[in-house]
Structure formats: structure tokens, C-alpha cells
Amino acid sequence: MTAVRLTARRPLFRCLNSPTPRPQLRRLAQQSKPQREYLSDLEYVSVHRAEALRLAQLKRRRNWLALGAALSMIAPMILVRFWDLPPPEEQNQDDQKEKKESRGVLDLITPRPTQTDSPRAAVDEFQGKKVVIAPGDKVIAAPVDAEHPMATDVDTVELVETGTSYVPYFPKTITLPVPTGPEAVESEAEYQLLGLGIRKVSFLRVQVYVVGLYVRSSDLHILQNHLINTVNPTASALIPGEKEDLRNALLDPQRSTEIWDAILARKGVDAVDMAFRVVPTRGTDFAHLRDGWMRGIASRTDEVRKRQADLLRQQATENRQISLPKPVEEGEFGDESFGLAMKEFKGLFQGKGKAPKGSVLTLTRGKNGELGVWYQPTINTKKGEKMGETTKLGSVQDERVSRLVWQLYLSGQNVSSEAARKNIVDGCIGITERPVGTVEGRVL
Questions:
Q1: Rounded to an integer, what distance in angstroms lies between the CA atom of residue 245 and that of residue 243?
Q2: 103: left (phi over 0), alpha (psi -120 to 50) or beta
Q3: Where in this chain does the record put each Chalcone isomerase domain (predicted)?
């Protein structure tokens, strides 16, 4: 063998750490052919298992990553929903600490931004008026130029906290036009707040709007008398045990329906003028609000039809008669006039467009059960938002429509806002504590 061949075979520089070549196993070549095929099958099975293990590991990794992504989205929702705010004393202490920590000249050049989570900074005005704390810890909305506003001033409006920063306050009293006299001349009447609450939808509890029930001031004693007679017809006021019975009855699905049906069925001088004030907490449109009321009314009419059918079957069973199917459906909401009334109600919101956050939609119910719809929009100006003029969208004369809308919030198993119903029940209990006719000017 020449030197050239030896040089080509062995490199001049070899790595000292290079693995030494293993000696060839010549016994494998001497084995029989069936045994070599068996070994190749074993090698295939090992590769298949290794591939299956690798795929299983990738699937587990994918599942853990998906679980982490889902938890990262759900955890903030749970924290926002269930994390309690610090007590007011701690908040005041934190505010005082922030005030004490001065940045010197930087405060003059770049002042601190207003904190949006502060309850007073976000709601320093209400419908063009400044929100201040009057003597007696009353929250009022006073004119901007008022130096020492009082709750008894003519230009001030006393407010009630709603529990949401989107629509922080509701007025305790509002004025609405009502027909008076034989010629039905419109005049202003005062309505007082009985209770309010937030409507929430879906499992995320998304806030849609704040709704409050107002009762005409001159009709408070009528409602008071109806509620007292529900528990004790001979009493002029309720004692603690009777008040608890009334509360349970107003929260019971069946009893509450009977009580409010009896109150809403009255007409004329025995009727109670009421109004629902609806303020969206976020931008929405009239079609969305209308569809919510339409679905609620449809579910209530279905419940009434089912109860009527059950009563007819029970009556037929007791009389041992056979109830044959009839070509025309009988019932309170099965006639053609109710269908036309629902078309009128639906047409009130047709083509009205958007309902921005803070706009006011008021539903009124008169002495004869007629439904009126009023709307007050918000207008963007250079100085900020201000309330526009209140306009009437229309009315529906059939009292069944307004009665069903009222029952969506006051009675039944599933109400549109459980918080609103409980707060309204508290207001009802409050007016039954005093003798009939002696209810004070402020309900809440």
C-alpha cells in the first residue's frame, strides 16, 4: 500500500474526543433469514411506538396551552365580578396619601390626570348641573353658578345612587306631562322614585340599562292603600310581621302576579299613574330594546295561555265533560285587537336608530292603562354632553300592553331585573309603614 493511499484514508488531524468506531458484529450476517426479518419487525414496532408517544406529547402540550389561554380570559372576568372593593375608609386613606405625595413643580406643569374609577370624579355633573353634597349628606344636582346649594332649592334635583359608574345617578323626582280635565289638556305632574335596579344579561352579567319605577305623587296614597289591603284590609298601616308577609308576597312568583294584576286592573280614580325610566349604560339602539320587551311579552302571554288551558282541562275533568278543540283560540290575548296593539307598540320604535349611553326613555301608564313612550336624547357639544328636548314617540291605548310591560319588572318567576324588583319591593314596604295619606314627599 502506497503512502498516498494511507494519507487519504487517515486524516492528519483527528479529534481526540471522537467516538471510537464500534466493531462490526459479523454474527448478525451469519444469522438465518427469518431471524433477520423478526429483528426488522421489532425495529418497526419501536419506531411506531416512538411516533405515537411523540404525538401524544404534542397533544398534551396543545391541551395545556388551550387551557391556559381559556383561564387567562376567564380569570379577569371572575376577578372583576367577585373582587370586593376596599371599604370607604381605606379608599379615603389612599386618597389622602395620594394628596400628600406631591411631585413639586411637576404638578404645576403636568397635573395629575383625573382617576376614572373615582366615584366623584366620574360623576361631577348630572344633565348639565354640578353634583354636590348638600347638608344632611344628600346628593343633589345644582346649577353651576350656585354658591351654597340646598336640597330645598327650586333649581336643584335630589339624586339617588344607582350602583353603576356608567349611569351613576337617578333623580328622586321627575316631571311628566299628563292629560287633565275633560278636554285632556296636558299639564306637568310630579313623579317620585319608588325603586330602581340594573338589568344584566348573559352569564357574564353585562349591564344593559338602569330602570326605575316612578309613581305620581298624588297617587302614592292609592298605591299605599292597595298594598295595605292586600295583607290586612282593616289596617291603615302595617306592623313588622305584616310588612314581612307583604314582602314575601311581592317576591313570590304567583302571589306577586295576583297582587300587581289587581293593582294594574283598576281604572279611573282608583288607578295609579306610574312610569318606568330607562337609561342605557352603553350605546344601544331602539330595535334592541324593543326586541327585549317583545320577547318578554311573548313569554308572559304564553304563560297565561298555558294557565288558561290547564284551568279548562281541570274544569272539564271536574264536570266530567270532553273539551273538544275549537277553531278559534279563546283567551285574554288571543283576539285580533291585541295583535294590532302589539303592532302599534312595535311601530313606536321602528326606524328610530341609536339610543346612546345616558339617553332617557320613559314609559308611562295612565289612569286608563294607556301606554306612552317619551325619549330624551344626549347631544354632544363643545362643552360636553347635554340633554336634548323630550319628545313623545307615541302611545298605545290597549291597557293589556302596558300591563304586560309592567309585569316584566314587577311579578312572575323571571323578571327583567331582579335587583330592580327587590328595590321596588323595599320602596313598597317603606310606604306602608305610615298611615294612609301621610306618606312623606320623599319615598327613598
A1: 5
A2: alpha
A3: 190-425
Residues in the chain, how many? Answer: 444
CA 422 to chain centre: 14
Computed from CA positions of residues 190, 196, 199, 205, in that sequence, does the dihedral angle turn out positive or negative? positive
- For residues 328 and 336, the answer to whether their CB atoms sit within 8 Å is no
pLDDT in tens, 27-58: 544 544 455 454 455 555 677 788 888 899 99
Residue found under cell 395629575 = 112
Reported as a pLDDT band with limits 50, 70 and 90, residue 86 is low
Distance CA 223, CA 271 (A): 8
CA atoms within 13 A on the CB side of 388: 16
**How far from the centroid of its chain's Cα atoms is residue 185's Cα?**
37
Nearest CA to 191 out of 162, 221, 166, 213 is that of: 213
Query: 302, 393 in Cβ contact below 8 A?
Result: no
Q: Which residues pair with 197 in a beta bridge?
A: 211
Q: What is the mean pLDDT of residues 11-33?
A: 50
First to last CA, the chain: 115
C-alpha cell at 70: 381559556
Q: Among 398, 355, 348, which Cα is nearest to 373's?
A: 348
Predicted model pTM: 0.70
| Alpha carbons 299 and 293: distance in angstroms, whole number | 10
Q: How far apart are CA 257 and CA 249, in angstroms?
A: 9
Kindly report each contact of residues 46-55 with a partner whose C-beta sits within 8 Å and lies 24 or more positions away, as own/partner.
none
Using CA of residue 47, residue 48, residue 50, residue 51, what is the dihedral sign?
positive
Radius of gyration of the chain (CA): 37
CA distance 142 to 133: 10
| Cα separation, 236 vs 217, whole angstroms | 19
Whole-angstrom Cα distance, residue 193 to residue 420? 12
Closest CA to 269 of 367, 200, 388, 180: 367
Q: How far is CA 354 from CA 201, 287, 359, 441, in A?
A: 19, 8, 10, 36
At the top level of CATH, the class of 192-291+347-431 is: alpha beta
79-92 as b/e: b if 16+ CB within 10 A: eeeeeeeeeeeeee
Domains of the chain by residue range: 192-291+347-431
CA distances from 102 to 92, 106, 375, 442 (A): 17, 9, 46, 43
Task: Using alpha carbons, select from 94, 425, 438, 119 the residue that is nearest to residue 246.
Answer: 425
**Beta strand pairing call for 391-396 and 384-387:** unpaired
Give start and end residues of each alpha helix (H) in 201-285. Answer: 220-231, 240-251, 253-264
